[in-house]
Amino acid sequence: MKKLVYLLAFSIALISCKKEQKDYVTFSGKITNKNSETVTISNPQFKFNKVIKVGEDGTFKDTMNIKDGFYRLFDGKEYATLYLKNGADINMTLDAQEFDETITYTGVGSEESAFLAQSSLNQEKLFGDKELMDLPELDFRSKVSNFVDDFNKRFEGATLDSTFVANQKQSIAGLEKYLTKMYNDKQYIAKNLAKGADSPKFVDYENNAGGTTSLDDLKGKYVYIDLWATWCQPCKNEIPFLKKVEEKYHNKNIEFVSISVDRQKDYETWKKMIVDKELSGVQLYAKEDKAFMDAYKVSGIPRFILLDPEGKIIDSNAPRPSNPKLVELFESLNI
């Protein structure tokens, strides 16, 4: 009989525990010097967007049914990255005038978000080191290695979600790879793309006017190169400014060369845009040939390059047409 009573009591206890497990997260906080009357918690991948009203005193609180994972909390244009999981009861405090520096998380399930807040500060400090990319190679590698080691040490003794830990280890490995690439690219540029160095060449790019054009065909004139694509809105934003510069330097000793890096599927779009936007200058199509872009370590477009009449580099990352410094540069060269 005693055994039966024990088993019955144990079963009831199990049922009670299950009932106590939450299928939602409670999130509250207080923002001093708030930027907005609301905060928004979102994750586009989960199609989740929750707007929470912030009181006059800066406090807020809500419960949310969520999928465990990463979210962003927005206060106006400022934001922080959170890691939320059902069952958590998290309280956040911050001063919006020193957003990243003052943000804190307490409560059940707050450890991951607190980890992210500290990581954000540490990375901000690392990226704010203006001398980092100019260090000798051994010093650079040592500093990055120490940063990664310190990051990984923070896992020791911490009670963190296993999925979160796996993600963060992958993230720090990606950051190390990114920083190393940035450093190597800068060293390459300093050595191979410095002012006065011979420019990498493109060969036999299709010319919209007919035939093909190579960089060597343009020797004898200054060459202002625009690397762009029809899908690139910032590239298209430069077109009106480029037209004005081309008009100002019409019949001068300079060629304006626009090289489309559109994929083959957008070839007809490129042809049509030349007509629709009345693009002038030399219009070339790279046909997915990345050799020229790779040689210049192009990581984003638009990218502008200025060469002298001998094919030597004046500026491997020249000012955009919308930047008044471009015309100043041309004038300093007496173009």
UniProtKB/TrEMBL annotation:
Q: Which CDD domains match?
A: TlpA_like_family (cd02966)
As one GO molecular function, the record gives: oxidoreductase activity
Span of domain Thioredoxin: 193-335
Q: Which InterPro entries match?
A: Redoxin, Thioredoxin-like_sf, Thioredoxin_domain, Thioredoxin_ResA/DsbE_sf
One Gene Ontology cellular component: cell envelope
User: For this chain's UniProt record, which GO biological process terms are given?
Assistant: cytochrome complex assembly
Cross-referenced SUPFAM superfamilies: Thioredoxin-like
The cellular location(s) given in this protein's UniProt record come to: Cell envelope
Q: Which UniProt keywords apply?
A: Cytochrome c-type biogenesis, Disulfide bond, Redox-active center
State the source organism's domain of life.
Bacteria
PANTHER family in the record, alphabetically? THIOL:DISULFIDE INTERCHANGE PROTEIN DSBE
Protein name stated in the entry: TlpA family protein disulfide reductase
Q: Which organism is it from?
A: Tenacibaculum larymnensis
